[in-house]
Amino acid sequence: MPVTIRDVAQKAGTSVATASSALNGRRGSIRMAEATRQRIVAAAKELGYVPNPIAKSLATGKTRTLGLVLPYADAFIDQNPFCTHVMHGVFQAAIADKYNLMLYTAWADHHEPPIGFGQHADGLILVLPPLDEPLIAHCREREVPCVAVVADPRIGVPTVNSDDREGGYLGTKHLLDLGHRRIGLLGGAREVSTSEPRRAGYLRALADSGIAPDPRLMASAGFDARFGHAAMLELLSLPLRLRPTAVFAVNDLCANGAMLAIREAGLRVPEDIAVVGYDDTEFCDTTRPTLTSVRMSVDELGSTAVRRLVRRINGQDEQDGEVVLPVSLTIRNSCGARAASLDRERRRSPLESTR
Amino acid sequence: MPVTIRDVAQKAGTSVATASSALNGRRGSIRMAEATRQRIVAAAKELGYVPNPIAKSLATGKTRTLGLVLPYADAFIDQNPFCTHVMHGVFQAAIADKYNLMLYTAWADHHEPPIGFGQHADGLILVLPPLDEPLIAHCREREVPCVAVVADPRIGVPTVNSDDREGGYLGTKHLLDLGHRRIGLLGGAREVSTSEPRRAGYLRALADSGIAPDPRLMASAGFDARFGHAAMLELLSLPLRLRPTAVFAVNDLCANGAMLAIREAGLRVPEDIAVVGYDDTEFCDTTRPTLTSVRMSVDELGSTAVRRLVRRINGQDEQDGEVVLPVSLTIRNSCGARAASLDRERRRSPLESTR
DNA sequence: ATGAAAGCGCTAACAT
DNA sequence: ATGTTAGCGCTTTCAT
User: What is the pLDDT of residue B346?
Assistant: First the structure.
């Protein structure tokens, strides 16, 4: 029923092959008399011809589609907007390069690849894959190009990461610069590739200031508010002279849990204990006090990955290495750096900071 | 290079056709001697055969893929989690029915359908399409089955909506039950199909209580916090005897803007002015005070749409009508209903309400 | 410059 | 029960 290229060719009085090259703009080549080309284009337009991408894919072996693999099915509705931002960046970049996007997210939960996994796509973006992600092997076999977003660089495919080490350094350094000497480190987990470098950055900052790290001040186990709350409680139970005067949390949720624990203990943020988070999510503007946080451009993580992937698909990017995106620090009220301007800040309408 | 069905057939010593039916489990039919079937399956397994979905699609005319069209490219990273939740519901249901998901979101921003739009998919889910959405016509021509999520039922394709009228009624009724007589209505916009029914519900609730609506108490123009703030400011500028003692906002963002304006005016929520929002987003637990809000199951909007769409694709659901999902009211602290238990509430850790 | 023909990998009559 | 044949709609040599 739908109009095919044959109909177009027939209407234009040419062969199918001619119609094909006309419609695919092989104009540069020697082929095609301008007259016939126009006839074909006109016919196509008149008939409302829309090429069938499936047929095209079968013939060319290219799908013009990228696959996005998020780590778990709830990635969209997660409290942590990380995945949605990556997705956003991926999508924007894919569109820009005229690629469609296929979602393969639920794979992780279902433990078996969806029908025709990876065959719909010319390449795959894996978000937060663990080092032993079976998909990597799967793709290598089938020669499906892959790029990983936030992953251990040893994973075997090109990776795009944020500069976690620098982020860890930045957050800690900021607190050191504010005069803190006992700084707690909250959160992280072995399985998550970001934990290690962030901690390394923390340690390096301490070392730079000639401070010996205190294991009692470092709690790692989780990433959410509950964990931040529990971990902070422990730090608060330390004898006063050992107690941290500041904490650096590996993400904003965790930091907020910590702030809550601090308030519950009758202490103030940042006066009694300063807090710095990580991720600089929108959330930071809504916490009490607003949360100073290390910022990475999550959207760019996604878009950069797409650009690398597309280059790979076109055989232009052979290097297998890691691309590291820069981080920065967004200063708000939880660290005490703005203590002086706090009042002015308070009077400013929170709406100003709402997108 | 990849192994095809021909390789399998050859290895099993059968024809391609036989291999095909064996692998597609036409076991029920008369076809297939169990022996050959097993031989084929074994061969396939041994060779690591993976059927090519593109070729299959071309042959069958089915893609086993659903397309999701969100209304704007920033839909994922919106402050309002509506779209992400719809997407989540859509995805879950699609997976359950063994459909893949293709994202067509950016279409709205780019003003031209992406390559092969709708041809990759057996059907489309349109989220928040305006009544004149050109895609609808586009799909009708190409006979692509569509279902719309949150749309005017007159749009011409099956729709799945939340019961906005009931939601408007519920929120207003709650305030009336708490003794309020002057209740403001905040937010909404002509173009958005939900505004009208919510307002209708509001009016009906007033009518039920024998209260004449006061146009001065109804402000409609936008959906965000800025608007809520500005609109509330206007209501606050009314002479005291005309001023509302409660307001009902058409979404949570708007409600929060209003709460802010109230606080800025030196008044308290809910003691001086009670506030009820709409959507019951996670956000409601983080506002001050926590926000009473009308709840709809956004995920279900998505999953219901998928189920309708799949039925359509299979030609089982001819009805073109509207499906309406129920709403409820989540009572928190902004409405005053829990005033008595407020203290207990305060002492409870906010973490409890964090997912 | 254009057309004829082959084939991408698979399914689905139809024939045996 | 299985093999043969003909496409699905398009691209791409290879002739002409």
Answer: 47
Strand D reaches within 7 A of the A23 CB? yes
Per-window interface: A 216-255 vs B, CB < 8 A = 224-226, 229
- DSSP secondary structure string, A189-241? -TTSTTHHHHHHHHHHHHHHTT----GGGEE-S--SHHHHHHHHHHHHTS-TT
> Scanning every residue of chain B, which has its alpha carbon at the shortest distance from the alpha carbon of A298?
B77
pLDDT digits 0-9 by tens, A318-354: 677 899 999 999 999 999 988 644 444 444 455 544 3
| Nucleotide with C1' nearest the B31 CA | D1
B146 and B135, same domain (yes or no): yes
Q: What percent of chain A has pLDDT over 70?
A: 89
For residues B140 and B274, is the Cβ–Cβ distance under 8 A? no
CB of A282 within 8 A of CB of B79? Answer: yes
Structural contact between residues B249 and B269, judged by C-beta atoms closer than 8 angstroms? no
Same domain, A177 and A265: yes
Q: Mean pLDDT in chain A?
A: 87
How many angstroms separate the Cα of B318 from the Cα of each of B157, B310, B313?
Answer: 11, 12, 10
Q: Is the pLDDT of residue A172 over 50?
A: yes
pTM of the model: 0.87
φ, ψ dihedrals at B126, nearest 5°: -105, 125
Which of A170-179, B11-20, B310-319 is predicted with the least confidence, judged by mean pLDDT?
B310-319
Per-residue pLDDT at A80: 80
Residue A198 maps to which CATH number? 3.40.50.2300
Residues B66, B124 contacting (CB under 8 angstroms)? yes
Q: For residue A150, tell me if it sits in a domain.
A: yes
Specify the residue for token string 């809910």: B270
Query: For strand D, which nucleotides have at least one atom less than 7 Å from a protein CB?
Result: 1-5, 7-13
Report residue A161's pLDDT band, with 50, 70 and 90 as the boundaries: very high
Alpha helices by DSSP H, listed for chain B, are: 5-12, 16-23, 34-47, 53-60, 82-96, 107-110, 134-142, 164-177, 195-208, 225-236, 252-264, 298-313, 342-347
What does each C-alpha distance from B323 to B70, B150, B161, B193 come to in angstroms?
Answer: 19, 10, 6, 15
A95: left (phi over 0), alpha (psi -120 to 50) or beta: alpha
Q: Domain containing B192: what range?
A: 164-297+329-344
Indicate the pLDDT class of residue B354, thresholds 50, 70 and 90: very low
CATH of the domain at B46: 1.10.260.40
**B134 within domain boundaries:** yes
A128 contacts chain B (CB < 8 A): no
Q: Is B25 on the interface with A (CB under 8 A)?
A: no
**Which pLDDT score is estimated for B317?**
65
